[in-house]
Amino acid sequence: MSEEPLIISNLNDFIFCPASIYFHSLEEDEENLLGQDSYQLNGSAVHQKPDNAEYSTRKSVLQGISIYCEKYNLCGKIDVFDIESGILTERKKKIKVIYDGYVFQVYAQYFALIEMGYSVNEIRLYSFDDNKIHGIPLPEEDETMFSKFENLISEINRFSFDNFHQNNIEKCRNCIYEPLCSFSALK
Ligand code: SF4
Q1: Ligand 1 within 6 A of CB of 20
Q2: Which candidate in 44, 118, 157, 174 could, as Cys together with 113 as Cys, close a disulfide (CB 3.0–4.6 Å)?
Q3: Cα four-point dihedral sign 62, 65, 68, 69
Q4: Low-confidence stretches of the chain (pLDDT beneath 50)
């Protein structure tokens, strides 16, 4: 991939399938979201308020601000960061499983905030539908996950579609982009 910054939300997409990043970005560009089902629309709504900076009026709470992490060349937005408590929260519609990609998205936000000079004491995921908070160890407290995060960044930077084949047919079977995708294992 190019030297352009990696988009934080792409970390999770890449783990699922590199080709899905392309389709996901198309969706974000289009008003009429191609193939987006009601579940995904609800998921977008979870982040709607922070992106519009309406979630809290407290000046100590940063919401939906753009961030860049020089160390890993990542850009994106934070969801909610409370400067006073140092708690960084990424909200999802419903968390059934804490996927590595979820954790890496919060890591990326964490490292960007640290570079900006903030003290981040706690990172966590919030599951909107069942009102559950899932605490995540900081990267320096979890050597295995931190190593996986850095390996993923390297893998994305080395990635090329030239040799790409999706071999996991189950992923394609469950992929909303399959009808449009020439990389599909079903074709
Ligand atoms: S159809 Fe298969 S190859 Fe295409 S984006 Fe989905 S999972 Fe990836």
Answers
A1: yes
A2: 118
A3: positive
A4: 1, 31-41, 51-54
CA distance 44 to 80: 15
At position 9, the amino acid (one-letter code) is S
Under a CB-based contact definition with an 8 Å cutoff, are residues 126 and 133 in contact?
yes
d(Cα 101, Cα 124) in Å, to the nearest integer?
13
Closest-CA residue to 34 (of 23, 21, 20): 23
Class of domain 6-180: alpha beta
Range list of H helices, the chain? 8-16, 18-29, 38-46, 48-51, 100-115, 143-158, 169-173
Q: Which of 168, 181, 186 to mutate to test the pocket of ligand 1 (most atoms within 8 A of CB)?
A: 181
Please report, for the chain, the start and end positions of each structural domain, with discontinuous segments joined by +.
6-180
Angle at 155 between CA 185 and CA 72, to 5 degrees: 135
Closest-CA residue, ligand 1 atom 7, reads 172
**pTM of the prediction?**
0.83
